[in-house]
Specification:
single chain, alpha/beta
Amino acid sequence: MAVFEVRRGTSPVILGFPHTGTDVPPPIWQRLNDNGRLLADTDWHIHELYEGLLPEATTVRATFHRYVVDANRDPQGVSLYPGQNTTGLVPETDFDGAAIWKKGEGPRDADIAARLRDFHAPYHAALAAEVARVKAIHGIAVLYDCHSIRSHIPFLFEGKLPDFNIGTDMGRTCDPAIETAADECAANAIGYNHVLNGRFKGGWTTRHYGRPEDGVHAIQMELAQSTHLAMEAPPFALDAAKAERLRAHLKAILERIETKAFDLKRSRSEA
């Protein structure tokens, strides 16, 4: 199977989708238990939610599921949030801390190495190539990494997650203008709440690619699934009315980020 999909555009903005894929190769599927086969930790419908919002944005989407290997985790297996509950490079459990593999069928070192080679590395090679291509056109590139998660997951965080969760690793992964653009648009979204660098400060993708001093900016948007799903449980159906309301605000965020990207491009050319 193709492990990623790329759609090239001319905008300085690139949309990354590491967690919307649901493909699981049969040999791996056979090792998942009934709970794992729910694929509950998918970023359900996120690539559909962003479809067409910024027509000239490049998109890079992983088609494989995060239970195969998580494309937003450090390939060395280093935790994104030391001391906090999280899931690993090849998860042992779901976001509720429940086992996803049949007894004795969990990932072994050889499995992890193979999945890094066959899935994680090709996806990031494609993403890195698009970042380089876009930067060659504009002198800068902005990677906007698209995510979602259930709004209540006691294993990972207390209470209800804000609707918009913006992550820039405490401002390290992008120019302040990019961060402010997303933050202000989210703050102006009536009926929604947001946080900047809260529980989710940006995953490995954001932290790995975000090098604003080199003209590559990265920002993560983690949406609470209550903003667009009919129910945050199987079958995880999209609520069309919620989605359309949310899309208007996501469009505003992306357009504002693109505008700031062009401003930064002009500043670099004038420097």
